[in-house]
Amino acid sequence: MKCTIDNQVVLSRPPEGPLAALIGSFAKSISEQGYSLVSIHRQAYLAACFSRWLKQKGVGLRSICSDHPARYLRYRARHARPCRGDAAALRHLIGFLRRDGVIPGEKKVACQPTPAERCAQAFGEYLLEVRALARTTIINYVPFIRSLLEDRFGRGRVALSRLSASDVVRFVQREAPRLHMKRAKLMTTALAHQPRISAYRKNDRSDEA
């Protein structure tokens, strides 16, 4: 029997398990973040599958932790071809559950930001102080800049001289289909600053190590 979630996602059967009653709220949350309908459907579907697996493993709602998504994806890989974005979808789910206080937050461990995070934050300060962009605009831009840098350099050294237009195009082509049109346009506008990112630190020999 089919089941409609948040008036926009149709699942082949009603959700089961400890997250069953929360999948509608989760779908609404990611919809409000600007994800496309295709991405919302995929994330809600994966959340339902994850919830069913938790039920099979006897895991209660308050016992869910950050280890469970990885364990579930390893289990799922034995039965279905992995899809790019599945791990991110479950991170979104865990984040949603923590923000709503449904599951306990993990103790924060003091750690150094990654080179990509430091570089994106520094560029945000440049946009504020030098380019005089509005703070709300920068708040929207910086996550896209950080994601681009993480996609290109991972958690290692950020060498901005190696960041090319083709890197940006490839990133946008992969990410845009997952986003609502307005969010995708915001991403392309943010990444239009890419030449300024390179120019911003082309003479800076302290590219993040």
Q: Helices, strands, pairings?
A:
Layout lengths: L2 E3 L3 E3 L11 H10 L4 H21 L9 H11 L8 H14 L15 H15 L5 H19 L11 H11 L5 H11 L2 H8 L8
Antiparallel strand pairs: 1-2
Helix pairs in contact: 1-2, 2-4, 5-6, 6-8
Strand order of the largest sheet: 1-2
Q: What radius of gyration results from the CA coordinates?
A: 19 Å
| Low-confidence region ranges | 202-209
Mean pLDDT: 82
Q: What proportion of the residues form beta strands (DSSP E)? A: under 5%
The number of distinct β-strands equals 2
Tell me the overall shape.
elongated
Content-based structural category = mainly alpha
Strand and helix order: EEHHHHHHHHH
What proportion of the residues is helical, as a percent range? 55-70%
Tell me the number of helical segments per DSSP (H or I, 4 or more residues long): 9
- Biggest sheet, in brief? 2 strands, antiparallel
Distance between the termini: 54 Å
Structure in words:
By secondary structure, this protein is mostly helical. It is built from nine helices and two strands, in the order E-E-H-H-H-H-H-H-H-H-H. It has helices spanning about 25-30, 35-55, 65-75, 85-100, 115-130, 135-155, 165-175, 180-190, 195-200, and strands spanning about 5, 10. Strands 1-2 form a two-stranded antiparallel ribbon. A hairpin with a 3-residue loop joins strand 1 and strand 2 (about 10). Helix 1 (about 25-30) runs antiparallel to helix 2 (about 35-55) and helix 6 (about 135-155) crosses helix 8. It is elongated and about 55 Å long.
